Amino acid sequence: MQDRTEAIDGETVNHSVPLIAKTRPKDNRFVIHQYSAFFLTAILYAISHASRTVYGYVKHDIKSDPYFSDSHLGIIDFTFMSAYAIGQYVNGYLGDRINIKISLGVGLVCAALGLSLFGYLEGIKATHIFAVDLLVFVINGLGQSTGYPGCVCIVSNWFANSKTGLVFGLWGTSLNIGNILGQQIGRIVTQNDPSRWPYALYITAGLLVVSLAAVILFTKNSPKDLAPRRISSAENEAGVNAALEAHASYGAAAHGGHGAHGGAQSIGFLDAWKIKHVPSYGFAFFCIKGVVYGVLFWLPTYLQDEVHMLGDISIILASIELGQLAGSIVFGYISDRIKSKSITIAFGFFFAVIFLLCTYLVRSIQAKSVYFTLLFLAGMGIGGPASLIGGAVSSDLGQRLLETSGVNAISTITGIMEGCGAAGAALTQLWVAQFQSIVFPTFAVLCMAGGLLMLPIAVEEYRRLMRQARASWAANEDPATHNE
């Protein structure tokens, strides 16, 4: 066993991590399933986001129908994000109590159905029944809400003993890869005939079902789901299955062996809100997700209608996604290196404010290179906090509670974070739909608010790090310590 002590949210937690690599000479099942869980859930979440991005990309083509005004589309977006927010809270709570794959399967099939129905009813049949439009986006939003808590829970189970900042930083890039994929699908499908936009929705819905099937068929919820294999007496002496069981007992802590399946007690929804710093992180996520989805749904329309940018804008749209992708990795790595997520998150918020305001100030310039650079840098500041709060912070808060109190809460906390984020995104849609000309100042204000929410936690964390540093210096200068 190896002891690893890490500061999580200002508190020190000791992780006892089984080192099965040294005692598992001929069994690669854990590693195979670990990386299968990482990559297949990443692909699933990427496709899930592509299905949202493609709708944002073709929105300009949808508006060619006089029936769809900016106000009309804003209400649809608000309805989708409201359903998504409610679903996040509910599914996060249920995720600690029912099988993850059941939740993912039912939810994302409904999401694919809702997306396809909108394309068929409004793109092919042009029914123009507003209540029906809202209904299919409620179905889509509730279905999509199962994806993130379920995927984060699976990844947390398999990487419970890893550096969560970097792990979730890398995994979080799936969001941005999915957004770029959705933009490219929308561009390819509509470049010759804008009226073909429904087929972009069909394609992403189909890909969503295929990637969902891969997760259900080829991943395990947690290491505990790995059945011991038959081994030779020599391997048994080497402790192959004992090591697997040790890893399973640790990795299953997040969900697979607890909550719905017996073991750790699941936390109540209101009790989860009382966990230290959960409200602060939740409202900070409210702010950053308002920016993320504001960009996702309205940046194409802003560039075409407000900046009057001509030609193919896909490279500009990709720049902010690439920036978020880079920010997710870089900020995740930095948070692990300095052992503080709150300081890293606060810096990211204020970093984004600078370049979002710069983007607004150059709105009269149509030079794509300028927009590419500024949006890439703004994306870095947006992507870092979004990835850390939604993934690593949620996982760490849940792991800390599990290790100190034996209470299972990862999915519930993740649902709270995502629910707050979706609520912020929903309200932002209503605002942006009415005030497209000031979207970037709006995004800057949201990031400033998020940074201010993080500031007290960051200051607390900084003081803790300084105390530790002073104690370390004092120990190094103590003659008795050197004599030992």
Task: Explain the overall architecture.
The protein is mainly alpha-helical and about 475 residues long. The protein has a single domain (about 10-15, about 30-225, about 250-465), classed as Growth Hormone, Chain: A, CATH 1.20.1250.20. It has helices spanning about 30-60, 70-95, 100-125, 130-145, 145-160, 165-190, 195-220, 235-240, 240-250, 270-275, 280-305, 315-340, 340-360, 370-405, 410-435, 440-475, 480-484; strands at about 1-10, 10-15, 265, 405-410. The chain has a two-stranded antiparallel sheet. A hairpin with a 2-residue loop joins strand 1 (about 1-10) and strand 2. The relative contact order is 0.16.
| CATH fourth-tier homologous superfamily | MFS general substrate transporter like domains
The helix tally amounts to: 17
Helix coverage percent? over 70%
For the biggest β-sheet, the strand order reads: 1-2
CATH topology: Growth Hormone, Chain: A
The coarse silhouette is: globular
CATH architecture label = Up-down Bundle
Average pLDDT works out at: 81
- Strand tally is 4
Alpha-beta classification: mainly alpha
What is the N-to-C succession of helices and strands? EEHHHHHHHHHEHHHHHEHHH
Largest sheet: 2 strands, antiparallel
Can you identify the CATH class? Answer: Mainly Alpha
Distance between the termini: 25 Å
Strand proportion, as a percent range, falls in under 5%
What ranges have pLDDT less than 50 throughout 5 or more consecutive residues?
1-8, 11-26, 235-240, 246-262
Q: Supply Rg.
A: 23 Å
